[in-house]
Amino acid sequence: MSHPGPSGEVVQRTELLLPGPAKALGALLDVPVPDLDRGEGLPLLWHWFYLLDHPAQADLGPDGHPVRHCVPAPPGPDRRRMWAGGQVRARGALRCGERATRRTRVRSVQEKQGRSGPLTFVAVEHLIEQGGHVVVEERQDIVYRPASSANPTAPEGAPIVPAADGDWALDVSPTLLFRFSALTYNAHRIHYDRDYARDVEGYPGLLTHGPLQALAMAEAARAAGCGGDQVLDYRLVSPLFDHQGLIARAEEGSGETATAVRDIHGRRTATGTLRSEGR
Ligand SMILES: CC(C)(COP(=O)(O)OP(=O)(O)OC[C@H]1O[C@@H](n2cnc3c(N)ncnc32)[C@H](O)[C@@H]1OP(=O)(O)O)[C@@H](O)C(=O)NCCC(=O)NCCSC(=O)C[C@](C)(O)C(=O)O
Fold first, then answer.
1. Any idea which UniProt keywords this protein has (predicted)?
2. Which of 81, 84, 99, 234 has the CA that lies 20 to 30 A from 212?
3. Is residue 6, in this structure, part of any structural domain at all?
4. Residue 7: phi, psi to the nearest 5?
5. Is the ipTM of this structure higher than 0.95?
6. Number of domains the chain is built from
């Protein structure tokens, strides 16, 4: 692996993809693991469990994310990092049993004014190559907010909206969030340290990871048989806390599959569309 450098630099990592992370994800989400020896490659978004950065403990900041020798680096001190959305395009099969290389760089930094205050959006590009071809092309939108920004509150007393036929539901417990953090080597404390999430960042509970919600949308589409879609565009539109459940749904339309995540009260927390390049 090349040593992580400052923003603008390309950070590269190569490894042999082993079956372990895919099997661990299957067990965590109770989803079918495809044939890892002879199959068509890993399902959409399963690359998130491979080619992970391993920052030095000494480089972690107070929120558990690295503050130096990392891409992206936070745009300033005392910022609150969130995963805001992104786009993932599968351009070929990513297979276990073969080496793969990921190249990462910051594509753009944009300052915006949101309802909740100033927002710095950092678009991070990841390209994964295997066998001489780019097989996964991804943009991750990471947002940084000042510590003084207004935080959402959890709606109280709203009626429960039960899961319907075809919904894909997860019980979001601290153990699920902890195991997802461990599988992605993500030490961000908002997902497992309730005291920190409440007292320092001001959230009413542990936050459900953005990638976990995106994965739920992709898995809902896979379970619904909306097969073959290779491009996912998604946004995390509102924080989802650990006591609020996670219910994903995917519905195939004429040009694309619409997908979303809601909490047990019906509040939408993520939206996405899946499409094939050819449709
Ligand atoms: C993103 C928040 C702060 C915007 O907050 P807001 O409501 O203040 O924004 P807004 O007023 O709706 O929009 C302002 C501007 O931002 C843009 N915008 C607005 N939303 C997005 C988006 N998603 N992606 C890209 N752009 C976005 C929007 O289009 C607009 O741009 P414009 O002025 O040009 O029109 C707010 O919607 C929010 O809190 N979303 C939920 C975030 C969340 O819960 N993420 C998952 C948990 S954090 C996590 O998983 C972390 C992890 C894994 O540990 C890790 O660090 O990597």
1. Lyase
2. 99
3. no
4. -55, 145
5. yes
6. 1
CATH number at residue 185: 3.10.129.10
- Sequence letter at residue 24: A
Residue whose entry in the numeric block shows the structure tokens 């930094």: 109
Does residue 269 belong to any structural domain of this protein? yes
What's the token pair of residue 213? 């919600």
- Give me the count of residues in the chain: 279
Q: How far apart are CA 65 and CA 77, in angstroms?
A: 12
Helix (H, G, I), strand (E, B) or coil at 27: helix
Tokens representing residue 149 in the block: 């920004």
* Token pair of 51 as six digits: 């080619």
End-to-end CA gap in the chain: 38
Smallest CA-to-CA distance from 195 within 38, 62, 3, 44 is with: 62
Span from the CA of 84 to the centroid of ligand 1 (angstroms): 4
Instruction: Name the residue range of residue 149's domain.
Output: 11-275
Q: Which of 90-94, 124-128, 229-233, 271-275 has the lowest mean pLDDT?
A: 229-233
Question: Which residue spans within 131-267 are E strands per DSSP?
Answer: 133-146, 168-170, 231-236, 246-252, 257-262
- Mutation test of ligand 1: which of 112, 241, 263 has the most ligand atoms closer than 8 Å to its C-beta? 112
Work out the average pLDDT over 142-153: 85
> For 98, which DSSP code?
S
B/e letters for 192-217, b = 16+ CB within 10 Å, e = fewer, are: bbeebbeeebebbbbbbbbbbbbbbb
Under the banding of pLDDT at 50, 70 and 90, the label for residue 148 is: confident
Nearest CA to ligand 1 atom 43: 239
